[in-house]
Amino acid sequence: MRKLSAFFSNFNMPTKINLMIGFSLIVMIFLAIMSLAQTQNTLMREKSILIKQHVEMVDNIAQQYYAKQQAGILTEAQAKAGAEEAIQKLRYDGNNYFWVMDKNAKIILHPIKPELNNSDGNKLTDPKGKHLFTEMAQIIAKDGSGFIRYEWSKPKEDPKKSFAKMAYVQDLKKWGWAVGTGIYIDDVNREILAAFSRIAIGIFFTMIIFGFVAYLFSIDTVGAVKNIIANLELLSHGKRCQNLPVSRRDEFGNMAKNISDADEKLNIARQSEAQRMENAQNEIKKKETLEKLISEFEARSVTILTSVDTAADVMFETFENMTSLADEVKSRATSVAHASSETSENVQMVASATEEMSSSVQEISTQTQIFTDTMVSSVVQMQKADQTSVLLNSATTKIDEITGVIQSIAGQINMLAA
Fold first, then answer.
1. Which of 369, 380, 382, 399 is the most exposed place for a label (fewest CB within 10 A)?
2. What does the alpha-carbon distance between residue 166 and residue 351 come to, in Å, rounded to a whole number?
3. DSSP state of 92
4. What is the pTM of this model?
5. What 3-state DSSP class applies to 383?
6. Sheet of 145-153, strand order
7. Is 193:106 a contact under the CB 8 Å cutoff?
8. C-alpha distances in Å from residue 326, one per residue of 314, 341, 386
């Protein structure tokens, strides 16, 4: 079974459907042939029963006349004549008839061939040489009744033409008679052919209907299978499904619904993955930007730190210079203070040492000019610093104020000396 299943699994769906249709047709033809044989046997059996029943009917007719003879109503000759007349008129199934013979094969009555009446049937043969009446007599003598096959002409047909016939003969047990009747095989075959034609027509229309239904089934099934295969290929390539037959209520519909659900879940997963990838790319871009900014910041920091370090060195040098200048200013301020003190003493001694005062004033004036030049140089140096420059500017301002005061005193002294 597994090997057979594996064998059929190598065929595609249309081939399987065609094989199924072909196998069904073969089975139908086989059943039709079997039905034909069965119909033939059944019809022959029915015909056999029918002719036996007809013979029994003739037996009843003969019994009626025989009873009248026994009752004294009719003589034997009258009873036989009445029975012969009644039997001669009997027909069934069209032209089928009855004949009467005795146990010695003498033909008493033959409705179709009256020339055979009262003739010796032992001398008669069919076209194949069969002594049919002799054999009938033998059957009656042995079994009392039975069937026999032979060939005989048909009523209303060419007398020279014979047809296969099946006859039944039975002993009437009255007057030593036996009655027989038969059916023509070709009539039975005609009926069988008619029955087979009906069966064939039924099979034909059944095949048409079955083929049409199978065709619709094939189109529907193959279409659904192709649709599902195409959508599975789309899924395998990461694409969305299209035109899935989810509205169907059969197994293909259930399969399509499952594929649709899987497609939806995969789509959600793809969207989530795409979002994650986008977020990851954004994070990477942010990281790259941050790293770039950090690198730029580090570079700028190094530059700034270098500049600051250089500025610090300059400021330190400036501070040292300013310290030196401050010391010099301090020294000069001390000299000025000393000069001022001396000037004060000279003022007190104006009257006695005018010339010395004048000399001192000139010295003060010279020192003041030197101090002023030094302060200008200090201002230039202090502009290179930041906070130290502000302090030095403030100190310079104060020194200028002191210098102004000293110059004012010196002017007054000069006025006094004049």
1. 380
2. 199
3. B
4. 0.50
5. coil
6. 119-120, 106-109, 98-102, 177-184, 162-171, 145-153
7. no
8. 17, 22, 17
